[in-house]
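Hey all, sorry for the wall of text incoming. These are the two entities for the joint prediction.
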Amino acid sequence: MYRYDLYDQQMVDARVAEFRDQARRRLEGKLTEDQFKPLRLMNGLYLQLHAYMLRVAIPYGTLSSRQMEALADIADKYDRGYGHFTTRQNIQYNWIRLEDAADALEDLSKVEMHAIQTSGNCIRNISSDHFAGAAHDEVADPRPYAELLRQWSSFHPEFTYLPRKFKIAVIASEKDRAAMRLHDIGIRIVSRDGELGAQFYVGGGMGRTPMIAPLVRDFVPLDQLVTYAEACLRVYNRYGRRDNKYKARIKILVHELGAEEYTRQVEEEFAHLLSVGVEPPREELARIAAFFADPPFAEGARVIDRSDPDFALWVDRNTHRHKHDAYVSAVISLKPVGGIPGDATSEQMRLVARLARDYSFDELRVMHTQNLLLPHVAIADLPALWAELDAAGLGSPNMDTIEDIIACPGLDYCSLANARSIPLAQRISERFAATGRTGELGELKLKISGCINACGHHHAGHIGILGVDKKGTENYQLSLGGSEAEDVALARITGPGFDEDGVIAAVEKVTDVYLAAREQGERFLDTYRRIGMEPFKEALYG
Amino acid sequence: MKILTGNDLRTGAVVWWSGAGWSLFVDDAVDVGDDAQEILAREEAARRVNVPYAIEASLDEAGHVRPAHIKDRVRALGPTVRRDLAVPTAQKTGWDWVI
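and here's what came out:
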C-alpha cells in the first residue's frame, strides 16, 4: 500500500490546520454560510437532511487494517457508531458536528487519510477495480497509476475550479469492475506487443444525462499518462460550460463537440504539453509502484472441504479467482437480508480490520458495490474466515445477486433526494430471500437511486429504480437492461412509475418474465437483450 | 400555516422556530404568518442556524405540526430506516404521518 512521505503528510496536516481555523471562524460568526460552504465542501463536509455529513476519501478503495480501525474510532468518537460505504469506494459519516469536524480530520491525518477531493468541482477521489493487484486477469496492478494520478490531481492549481466535478477510474483488465466507461475519464491499462499503455475513454457519466464514454485514444504510452490526462482536462477546463451546471460535465462537451473533434483538440493540446514536459519523472512512478509490490504469497491448498453447504455457497458466490492459485479474493457482504446497503457498525469495521490482518496481509478494499473485500485470502484459510464472518452476520452469500443491491442514502439522509432508496432495498432483499429465488435468478444487479443524480447507479442496473417526487409523494421509475461492466449499457425506462409497493411487485414481475423466457446459461441481462423490452412491458402494464 | 426550519450551526441538527428560539421538536414550531422574512433575516444575521427557510405546514386533529413536504417530515423525525436514531419527537408521535 502507498504510504505518505513527509511532503504528503505536511500537505494534509496543513489542510487540517487551515480547516480548523475556518471552522472556528464560522462558529464564532465571522464567516457566513455562503463564505464557509465552499471551504467545508473542499474538506468533504456536507450539510445533509439531519446533520453535517463527512465524506472521507479512500483512494482506489484500498485500506490497511490500521486505517479501518481509525474509521471505526471516528464512527464512535464523532458519529453514532457506524459509517456508510459508498458507490465511489469512500465512507460517509452521517452525524458529524461542525465543532468536531476538524478533530475528525486530524484523526484521519494520523493514519494518512483525509476528506480532500470528496466534494466540489475538482478531480475527485480516483476509483479502481476492487480486485486490483489480486485479479487473475489484469495486465498490471492499476493502483500505482491511480496513485500517480491522485498525486498529480491533488491541489492541481489549474483544476481546482473546473466547470463541474470530475471522476476518474483506472482499471487494468478486460473485465470492467469499476464502471470505468461511466466516468468522466475511464482509463484501461492494456498490453500491446509487450508494452503497457493506457486506453482513454472520455465523457461518460450517470446523473441526469447518462452517457457511455467513447474511446478517445487507444494507446497512450504509460510514460505519457499524466500528460494525456492533463490534455483531456485542459480542453474541458477551457470549453466546458460554466453557465449551466446541468450541462457542465465533460460528457456534455464531448457530446456537443463530437468525440472526433474533442479528440482532435486533446491531441493538439497533448502535442503542446509534450513539448513543455509536464510528465512526472519515471523515478516517481517507480517509487510509487514499489508500495504495491505483492505480499509474500505462500504455496498452499488449492481445494477445501465443501461439505458444509452454507460455506460452499459462500465460496461459490463471494470469492473471486486470484492471480496466485493458492489464494482468492473474498467479498464481505454489507447486504444482509433487510439491511442497509453499505452500512457498517464500528464493531464490524474493527472485525473486518482484524480479519484483514489475520487473513489478507493487512489489506482490504471498499467495493463500488458497497461491500468490503479481503483481496488476498489463502484458500486454506477460507473455512476459518467464513466461520468468523458468519458468526458476525457478515457472511451473506449474495455477491452480484438480487440481494446485493446498490442503494444511495436517498431521502432518509440526502438533501438532494426525492424519494427513499434504502427501504426499497430492504424490502426487495427480504422479498426475494423469503421466496428462495435469489439463487435461481443468478447474476442480477439491481441498483436504486433516490434522485436523478444517480449515486445509486440506476442507469447501470440490470434492473434500475429511480425515485422521483410525484406531487409530494414518492414514486419510482423502473428501468431495465443497464450494465456498468465491460458490456456497458444504459438502462431503458419501462413506462409509467409505481408507488413503493407497486415497484416491488414490478421487480418480481420482471424476474418472472426472465425465468419463463431464459435460455440455457442466460443471465437476466442476456435474456433482456435477446427478447427486448416488450415482454416485460406487457407483464407490467398489459 | 407557515413555519421556519433550518439546521443548527454547531451540530447540524434539524431545528424549528418556536417563536422564542430554535427547538429540536417540530411540535414546537409556530405559525409565523407574514413575519417569515423578517425573522429569517434576523436569524440569518445571528448565524446560529444554517440557511433557515420557511415551509408550509398544517396542524393535525390532535394539534401536532405536520410539515407539508415529505422531505421536511423526514427531517422532523430522522431517517425512517434508523428509528433508533430519531429525535425524541418520534417516540411521542410515531411515524405514521411521515410518508
